[in-house]
Amino acid sequence: MSAMPPLKVENISYSVEIKEEKKRQFDILKNVSFEVEQGEIIGICGESGGGKSTLAKVISGLIKPDSGKIILDSKFEKEKRRSSPIQILFQNHGEVLNPFRKVHTIIDEALNISGSEEIKIEKDRENILNSVGFPKELYNRRGFELSGGEQQRAALARLLAVKPILLILDEPFSAQDVESQLNLVKLFKQLNKEFNLTMICISHDLRILRNLSNRVLILKDGEVVESGITKEVFDNPQKDYTKFLLSAESLELTYEEIKTPLKN
User: How many CB atoms lie under 10 A from the CB of residue 228?
Assistant: First the structure.
């Protein structure tokens, strides 16, 4: 009997009500299903407004779906945890990192939540901050005193400190230069290997997902239109929408220029 995957997403749908002259329902997610294996990095890509970030929030429990299920491996559900087993690194690091608290205090609090022994807190803090490449001389800095890149790494360390079974990365490469993006890809791969950390990476940048993810899901208007091993999907796409995204990438169109509606 094969082991149960850490996460199963089954037929998730989510909609919002739009108030105009007549109220109408707008479907953001439509029967989304997939599984995530232990230690895997899943990439999710598609146009802005396609439902990627909403899906991340549903998976993490921040919003409740209209229908469908998020199923965790029973061994994780039985664990007594003081924090969610699924954590999100938001685009806005302020969602994770308090700008007025010192970095070492933020990490120590997270380690306490995860059950680290008091005598091991200092060592555990240093190990985690080292693993994300955060300089020791900045441990006493407050969040607002850090650069954007330093804030992101401190926020990532905060999430790792509570020992998640799944880490969701929500557009972690946005507004960064190419060198910073490559360094982040290298960091995420390193963390994946070092902690056997399962990840879902949401990004509109297909070139990054080529190098980072094991499998990829293409999301269009709230539906998964194509999925599979990243290299196979990108080298031999089956759906018009995937072909369109890849063509736009090769032509170096901007993300905002990808607006032409296509059939799946």
Answer: 15
The band of 116, judged by pLDDT with boundaries at 50, 70 and 90, is confident
Q: Decide if 88 contacts 32 (C-beta within 8 A).
A: no
Dist CA 185 CA 17 (whole Å): 37
Q: How does residue 26 score in pLDDT terms, banded at 50, 70 and 90?
A: confident
In angstroms, the CA 37 to CA 3 distance is 9
The pLDDT value recorded for residue 82 is 67
Quote the CA–CA distance of 111 and 82 in Å, as a whole number: 11
Distance CA 133, CA 182 (A): 14
**Hey, which bits of 73-175 come out as E strands?**
86-89, 166-170
What's 203's DSSP letter?
A: -
Token pair, residue 65, equals 């779906």
Do 160 and 195 form a contact (C-beta atoms < 8 A)?
yes
Residue 62, pLDDT above cutoff 70: yes
Sign, CA torsion 20/21/25/28: negative
Query: What's the pLDDT at 75?
Result: 65
Helix (H) or strand (E) holding 199: strand 198-202
Whole-angstrom distance, CA of residue 244 vs CA of residue 47 = 11
How far is Cα of residue 217 from the mean position of the Cα atoms in its chain? 13
Burial code of 113-148, b = ≥16 C-beta within 10 A, e = fewer?
ebebeeeebeebbeebbebbbbeeebbebebeebee
* Cβ neighbours around 213 below 10 Å, total: 24
